[in-house]
Amino acid sequence: QVHLVESGGGLVQPGGSLGLSCAVSGLTSDYYAIGWFRQAPGKEREGVGCISLSDNSTYYEDSVKGRFTISRDNAKSTVYLQMTNLTPEDTAVYYCAAEVAYSPANRYMCVAELFGTWGQGTQVSVSS
User: Fold this and answer.
1) pLDDT 10s digit of each residue in the chain, 128 long?
2) With contact defined as beta carbons under 8 Å apart, do 67 and 101 qualify?
3) CA angle 83–105–70, rounded 5-degree value
4) pLDDT value for 124
5) Is residue 52 a contact partner of residue 101, using CB atoms and an 8 Å limit?
6) 111: which strand partners?
7) Alpha carbon 38 to chain centroid, angstroms
8) What angle do CA 117, 88, 11 make, to 5 degrees?
9) Sheet of 18-25, strand order
10) What confidence score (pLDDT) does residue 76 get?
11) Is 84 helix (H, G, I), strand (E, B) or coil?
12) Is 73 helix (H, G, I), strand (E, B) or coil?
């Protein structure tokens, strides 16, 4: 059974950086995608990006491209979301999610509705 636990959220000033972690357990192969998603108060959940564990390819939504980076540490079974140049618009609860995937990361894969297993979320607040 796949299990995900996010950590690393907190309060950061505009222009600052923050790293989130997603500890993953229960995977039976590398044919999975790990997605990062976020939901701000009063708004719908939106995608941030995802990584395909089979080839480490990544995909990012335009809103975070160039500012956020997704990576993995095989030894620690952890996927990271490094966020830089944060703005108040990045304030949200951030979730990681897992789903079986056989293709490189792409916009059609990194869709929340396709992911079946979710972590509990971690709050990121960007404010001065």
Assistant:
1) 999 999 999 999 999 999 999 999 999 998 999 999 999 999 999 999 999 999 999 999 999 999 999 999 988 799 999 999 999 999 999 999 999 999 999 999 999 999 999 999 999 999 99
2) no
3) 20
4) 98
5) yes
6) none
7) 8
8) 70
9) 3-7, 18-25, 78-83, 68-73
10) 79
11) coil
12) strand
pLDDT of amino acid 89: 96
- Report residue 70: phi and psi, to 5°: -105, 135
Output the pLDDT for position 18.
98
54: nearest Cα among 110, 21, 103 = 103
The residue to which tokens 């809103």 are assigned: 63
CB atoms within 10 A of CB 42: 5
Question: Distance between CA atoms of 31 and 100, rounded to whole angstroms?
Answer: 6
Q: Are 51 and 114 in contact (CB under 8 A)?
A: no
Query: For residues 75 and 6, is the Cβ–Cβ distance under 8 A?
Result: no
